[in-house]
What we know:
This protein is mainly alpha-helical. The protein folds into two domains: 24-164, Helix Hairpins (Orthogonal Bundle); 173-236, no CATH class. The protein has five helices and four strands; from the N terminus they run H-H-H-E-E-H-E-E-H. Strands 2-1-4-3 form a four-stranded mixed sheet. Strand 3 and strand 4 (229-232) form a beta hairpin. Helix 1 packs antiparallel against helix 2. The longest helix is centred in the first third of the chain and has 82 residues, at 2-83. It binds zinc ion. Residues 199, 201-202, 204, 223, 225-226, 228 line the site of zinc ion (ZN).
Amino acid sequence: MRETLSCLIQLQKVDSAIFELAKSRDQYPEQVKRTQAKVEECSAMLESLSSKLQTLREERSTKELHLKTEEEKLRKWEKRLMDSKKHHEASTLAREIDAQKRLNQEVQEEALRLLEQEETLKKKVDEIAQELATLRQQFDKEKALSDAKTKEFDSKIKALEADCGQYTKHLKKNVTTKYENIKKRRNGLAVVPVRDGCCTGCSMSLPPQLYNIIIQATTLETCPSCQRILYWEEGLEHGIS
Ligand SMILES: [Zn+2]
């Protein structure tokens, strides 16, 4: 059993190293994903603002076109007023001209207001477009780094996985299965030492009877609380007992 435990301890060491490497490796694609989300958000915002800007432009252009027609009409009326000889017709025309002038003035002011809104929005659109370009550059850089790092970590992990074989070959199938199952359930940590009478996996204080059994190292014992495989650190890791 002592040999089985030693194998399990070594296997756990290699697996822990693999676990840490995988954690380091996975940071890179996670960062890429976060930047990608920002790119998508920024791109959607740019699209929405650009479409608003387009609507404003169309609205202003319609107003300006309308104003042009109305001003032409006004000029015709003014000419007719000059030519008018009848007093009644002239005063009616003059009133209409005044009213039309006021209307035109309003349309002109609206067109101006739209132009101001347009300019403010255009500035915002340019800013967002610049931000999007920067984010896209950042994404490309991070993606390239992530691909390189994934490759680098994967090859390190592969080498360690090959190391696992030299330990598992000495273990019985049921022990390996047990180890793998605990590892899966317990975040990669299946074999832990007992320190000061406590399981270092979950800090539970072990019953003295179980502690004595673990010191003897003749059976494979697990923690009653976290179910991890336990060993007596001083005895096995340093080979004193
Ligand atoms: Zn425990």
